[in-house]
Amino acid sequence: MVNPVILAAPEIGVPDTGDTAWLLTSAALVLLMTPGLAFFYGGMVRSKNVLNMIMMSISAMGVVAVLWVLYGYSVAFGTDKGSLIGDPTEFFGLRTLLAGFGEESVGVPLVGTIPATVFVAFQAMFAIITVALISGAVADRLKFGSWLVFAGIWATLVYFPVAHWVWGGGWIMSKVEAIDFAGGTAVHINSGAAALALAIVVGKRAGWPKTPFRPHNLPFVMLGAALLWFGWFGFNAGSAVAADGVAGFTFVTTLVATAAAMLAWLLVEKIRDGKPTSLGAASGIVAGLVAITPSCSSVNVLGALIIGVIAGAVCALAVGLKFKFGYDDSLDVVGIHLVGGVLGTVLIGLVAAPEAPAGAEGLFYGGGLELLGRQALGAVAVLAYSFVVALAIAYVIKLTIGLRASEEEESVGMDESEHAETAYDFAAVGGTARSAVKEA
Questions:
Q1: Is residue 418 part of a domain?
Q2: Does residue 433 belong to any structural domain of this protein?
Q3: CA–CA separation, 211 vs 388, rounded Å?
Q4: How far, rounded to the nearest angstrom, does the alpha carbon of residue 352 sit from its chain's CA centroid?
Q5: Is the separation of the CB atoms in 249 and 305 below 8 Å?
Q6: Does some domain include residue 59?
Q7: Which residues on adjacent β-strands are paired with residue 110?
Q8: Enclosing H/E stretch for 76
Q9: Tens of pLDDT along 61-71?
Q10: What's phi and psi for 191, nearest 5 deg?
């Protein structure tokens, strides 16, 4: 759980330089995850759609950052209103948080031991990547303008309030007291449920599931997974909001669970398909990162291994659910983020260890069923809210400006039809030195 000092109103003081440096670094690491996600998603689509896929992640950085500093931070971390949202006017435009720099200044507004502006920036990166995650479910067919509209509305109506529920003093944090250290509910279940809703409304890609939609650039996918793993240490360890032992503890559990999940995914592939794949390794990495996100402060190393193995194996199987139920989740956002987020959140109720920083006791450590119930309630509530609201937003956009590209645009490719660009100039690549000299 986020440090409880965050709930207090910012006070003027002198920041701790070590904590501030770590949170600034963590914020930059989490921002790097969004370009990492862009490569991860971009490599998995066909070559005619790679720029559009990358643009959907990068554009989230623009849309969400603007909304966050205007009112998003205030909705998420402003004074609680009925346990549902923060006061949207309290920090509108970050007013009162940019004070303390005059000649008479003896400090700046603080959140705990760090400048409030640093905490604003750190949390902005969470909001950005949560929105970007959704885009993978609708690759190859969603109009770019409609994506921007959906991203802004969903962030406003879903992510900002849910962040308040989980971290800003809202009902999940204060009444249910579910543990979500870095975003199992607020980030992964939230985005996974929205991805499912949006994929259902947008509809299936032309030719799916009979046409194979193979990744066009697996090195992109592996690069993206590596950047995500690297940035995720800022995501999880940075959520300690201090350069302390909790940050070190969560760093280790994040490493362990992710490694275990990758190996578990590869083992499932070997048994099921006969060959372990690079795509499986990359996907296993992300599944492990997702599952350990809510639980990294509440489990020991053994618990992290258990969560990683279960997440890697279950998510490897869960990505096939779309064929059984008939929803076209292009890049397996549901199978990895929704399923992985639920697993990581609920398993806290079983393997939370009292020696971990959260100090909670799961069922396997004699804690009974209470914690398991609280975790399940938090997971189900966020899943249901995000799915229903995302479904409504998608239908409204579909009935007004439209969601999906035309059949012709989808056939040509989203890069050319939406952006008038192509990622690869095949004509130039196909030329020869002799023809180049002749043309010159």
A1: no
A2: no
A3: 30
A4: 23
A5: no
A6: yes
A7: 11, 115
A8: helix 73-77
A9: 999 999 999 99
A10: -70, -35
Type of residue at 185: T
Per-residue tokens: 46: 């066909």
Q: Please check whether residue 129 lies inside any domain of the structure.
A: yes
Instruction: Report the CATH number that the domain containing residue 297 is assigned in CATH.
Output: 1.10.3430.10
Structure token digits, residue 149: 């509209």
Predicted local distance difference test score (pLDDT) of residue 107: 82
The C-alpha atoms of residue 306 and residue 294 are separated, in whole angstroms, by: 14
Among the listed residues 264, 268, 376, the one whose alpha carbon sits nearest the alpha carbon of residue 320? 268
As a dihedral over the C-alpha atoms of residue 167, residue 29, residue 107, residue 16, rounded to 10 degrees, the angle is 90
Amino acid at 311: A
CB atoms within 10 A of CB 96: 14
User: What is the domain range of residue 318?
Assistant: 11-94+109-406
Element (H, E) at 398: helix 370-400
DSSP label at residue 300:
-
Do strands 108-111 and 114-115 pair parallel, antiparallel, or not at all (unpaired)?
Answer: antiparallel
User: What is the distance between the alpha carbons of residues 322 and 334, in angstroms, rounded to a whole number?
Assistant: 9
413: tokens are 């490719």
- Per residue in 174-210, pLDDT (tens digit) is 999 999 999 999 999 999 999 999 999 999 999 999 9
Inter-residue contact 248 to 190 (CB < 8 Å): no
Number of domains in the chain: 1
